[in-house]
Input
Amino acid sequence: MKNVNKRRTKRSKGPATARISIPKFYDLSNPISQDMPVYPGEPKPEFQPIFSIGKDKVNVTRLVMSSHTGTHIDAPKHFIPTSTADAVNDIPLESLIGECVVLDMSKRDAGYGITDSDLDEYSGMIKENGGDIVLVYTGTSDQWGKNENIRTNFSYLEPSAAQWLVDHRIKCVGIDSFSMEKYGFQRGLTHEKLLSNGIGIIEGISSKLKEFVGKRMFLVCIPLPLEGADGSPVRPVLFEIF
Output
């Protein structure tokens, strides 16, 4: 808390450009495997050999998985039921690349809904002129593969938190949970608020995120150009800013 208060006294406006350290980068993705935990109801990945060395000249594998497997992004098409909603290949890459702040929301037990009041504590870390990316560490990722209940009892963003992100002109938000939305939702109000305002969504970030809480970093997160798809696995990478 001491560091957060210090940042409040010097609200970050951010430089016009950021200088990053190329040799120092950190992969925030979860490995995709056939036995990995997935959102309830979604299929686990399957790796099916098509060709194999010995029988054939090369190894080639057929991949079968959900568009929201592991660390992934949600396209507007995922929640917005219109023919004009953007698919993954329509999302501008600049919305998934830029300076980010990592917020610690792990103080509460798993399953807690993060509100605008929770985010208010970190207002001083956000650039006044907008354009930041916010990554939220909830601690949910620490229990992946260890606690089966975490697949339905994970932390998420309340609609009020989504509105806070809109009001602060955040361009993308990531979380280390299976979803931004509460499990068992009747209507995806958080997703609708974020996606309808052009805010990118990254879900399923790895537990490595906790190493960067309270820091400002530079994020590069590139989806596969899946034409017409509602989501895509991604490999978010953090770089140090100097």
The chain is about 10% helix and 25% strand. The longest strand covers residues 20-27. The first helix runs from residue 2 to 9. Helices lie at 2-9, 116-120, 159-167, 189-196.
